[in-house]
Amino acid sequence: MTRQDLLLIPGLLCTRQLWEPQIEALADRARIAVADHTRDDTIAAIARRILDTAPATFALAGLSMGGYIAFEIWRQAPERVERIALMDTRASKDTDAETIRRKDLLALVDQGRFNGIHDRLIPLFVHADRLDDDALLGSIRQMAEDTGKDGFVRQTRALMARQSAHDVCQSIDVPALALCGRQDALTPLEMHEEMADLIPGARLAVIEDCGHLSTLEKPEAVTAEMRTWMDA
Q1: How many domains does the structure of the chain reveal?
Q2: Residue 42 contacts by C-beta under 8 Å, 6 or more apart in sequence?
Q3: Where residue 214 sits, what CATH number does that domain have?
Q4: Enclosing H/E stretch for 73
Q5: Please, what is the Cα angle at 217 between 130 and 47, to 5 degrees?
Q6: What are the average pLDDT values for consecutive 10-residue runs of the chain, which has 232 residues?
Q7: Which helix (H) or strand (E) covers residue 4, if one does?
């Protein structure tokens, strides 16, 4: 079977580690690269930087913030995207309440309390049953430390200013997957149902007993869905 180029984009405060289970499991199916999304403070600039070094054409998967960037990559260069997976993400902009929450987190950074962000976000990132999973929570904290406070600030500013992607959804004409954890608290199932309805021919996949960071919480189930998507 011919291996595809697969570009993976992590979420906020996440790194390559978010995708490690899939990188290993899909190595037989794809040549995999993980995008850097820490150096710019707008979604458009992040997408341009990624496109500058990406293969000529590629399969594209983004989780959470990575999904917002994937939408922008499609907006800028749809002819280069062979298929798209939008995972634990959404097409809508932030609500007013979410903007306030992001500003509160930026205020913590300004106060020199970057490490306090973990405790605020982890209950939103994982299923409630995994809040005592030391290995998983350790991975999340390590990814945040590797991203660093400056990277987090740039990412947060980009997220706060992003556009709605409803128009992008309607223009997608390649095999598309909308995937989420059943108990995703940040981007709930109904947001993925909306995307699947807007994208012609999109397939909706729901990972049971799973929160927002599905690739780490339920790696085997997510990898199986991604393999089906890549074979579509």
Answers
A1: 1
A2: 157, 158, 161
A3: 3.40.50.1820
A4: helix 65-76
A5: 125
A6: 91 98 97 97 98 98 98 98 98 93 94 88 94 95 95 96 96 98 97 98 98 98 98 90
A7: strand 4-9
